[in-house]
């Protein structure tokens, strides 16, 4: 049976996106901690929507487009390409974390915004600075257990 793994992506693209996302999340944590809750809330909504965009339509997500159009042409070709599914899954995890923070904030949980933004920041920073993608690691673990990433066999 032929391999149906999607075409690979440049692994530097998700790291570039993670760097920008890290900065936005750090700003969000700062805004929440200095008690600019409305600004922190709306920034987290924007970040959550960017995560969602990365899941639904990754080819048109803003940071990916900037990487492909502006940054990648100035770099040497990547040594190898990676499966796009784990980074896309990681975007979903980011959406889940930030979305949960938004929901908990709306339900009145006092530190929901800075905690959610800080958790997402740690994950984004690890990817940007060290190339360690927590969401991708979760994907690989789920794949090992046969939950994601396996083709369904025809009955």
From TrEMBL:
The chain crosses the membrane at residues 16-34, 40-58, 93-113, 119-142. It holds the Pfam family DUF4395. It comes from the Bacteria. Keywords: Membrane, Transmembrane, Transmembrane helix. This is DUF4395 domain-containing protein. Residues 9-144 form the DUF4395 domain. Signal peptide: none annotated.
């Amino acid at each position: 049976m032929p391999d149906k793994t999607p075409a690979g992506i440049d692994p530097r693209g998700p790291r570039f996106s993670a760097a920008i996302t890290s900065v936005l999340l750090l700003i969000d944590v700062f805004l929440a901690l200095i008690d600019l809750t409305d600004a922190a809330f709306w920034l987290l909504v924007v970040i959550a929507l960017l995560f969602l965009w990365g899941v639904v339509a990754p080819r048109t997500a803003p940071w990916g487009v900037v990487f492909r159009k502006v940054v990648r042409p100035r770099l040497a070709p990547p040594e190898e390409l990676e499966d796009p599914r784990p980074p896309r899954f990681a975007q979903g995890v980011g959406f889940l974390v930030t979305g949960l923070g938004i929901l908990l904030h709306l339900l009145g949980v006092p530190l929901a915004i800075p905690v959610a933004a800080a958790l997402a920041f740690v994950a984004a920073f690890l990817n940007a600075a060290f190339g360690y993608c927590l969401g991708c690691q979760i994907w690989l673990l789920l794949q090992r257990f046969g939950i994601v990433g396996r083709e369904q066999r025809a009955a």
